[in-house]
Structure formats: C-alpha cells, structure tokens
Amino acid sequence: MNIQRHTGFYVIGLAARTRNSMEQNGKGKIGEIWHELLRGNLASKIPNKIGINLTAVYTDYEGRLDGQYTYLLGLPVSSILNVPANFVAKYIPSGRYSVVTSERGPIKRVVPETWQRICSMPVAELGGIRSFRADYEIYDQRSTDPEKAQIEVHVGLR
Question: pTM of whole model > 0.85?
C-alpha cells in the first residue's frame, strides 16, 4: 500500500457517463472514448497541458460500485480556460489517495484486474475507506506497449 497526499488538479478530455455493468457486458463507453481520443490525435488539441501522460478520471459517482459514474480520458492541465468544444474539464480534489500499481500485461486485461483487486481489498489493505469523489489512472511510459503495460490507479480516500 502506497498512500499519497495530492493537491487538486484539473484534467481536460473526452467524457461519458457509464457504469461497471455496461463496461463488463460490452455495451460500455470507455473503449469508444479511447478510440476517439487516439484516432484523431485529439489530445494535441487540449490547451495548457501539463506533461504527456494520459489520465483516466472516474468521478460523479452514483451509488458507489454499481451506479453510474463519469469517465474522462485526457491530460492534466494548468488552467481550464479555453476548453475546446466537445471536451470536458473535471477537477480531481486534493486529499489522500491509495496508489495501486497493476501487474504488467495486456492493457485490456491489467486494467480490469487491477480494479477488481481494488474493489475486493479490505479497508486496511487499501489504506482507508474510498471517498467515491474521484479516482484516476495514469498511463505513463510504462504503458506505451499495450501488450506489456503497467498503470497506476490513484484511489481517493476519505
């Protein structure tokens, strides 16, 4: 368990409302967001970028694990001025986050496996009670090869 205290920051990207059951049965929206952002190199249109690591944000939770949430894929930014049309800005609040690192492997396998592990962790192992305000994944240099990827999931804690 790796607990970190983060200051708040904004991410600008493409977003959609979804839920875990939709993602698991093939009717989800997360894959579409990835495809749209990468296909058109839309990340290059995000103003005020801080770095190049894609960030996937989970926020606006309804009903904890089984309800809808907003999924946003984009980049951290220094300002939310001039958000392009069809893009959304979301704030990741400051606070305590448990950082969970995935195993290495195909990205389509390691991401859901890491979330399944997080959702089944006892509170003591996770480092606290989930806040369900915002969680996020970082896709850095360890995830450039989609067959040997490793990601970090930052889980918001109360």
Answer: yes
What pLDDT score was predicted for residue 26?
Answer: 83
Tokens found for residue 125: 């192992």
Q: How confident is the model at residue 103 (pLDDT cuts 50, 70, 90)?
A: very high
Strand 68-77 versus strand 152-157 pairing type: unpaired
The sheet that has 88-92: what strands, in order across it? 2-6, 95-101, 152-157, 130-139, 54-59, 68-77, 9-19, 88-92
Q: 153 forms bridges with which residues in the sheet?
A: 100, 137
Of 62-66, 84-88, 99-103, 121-125, the range with the lowest mean pLDDT is 62-66
Which structural domains are found in the chain, ordered by start?
2-157 (3.20.80.10)
Q: Rounded CA gap, 76 and 147, in Å?
A: 25
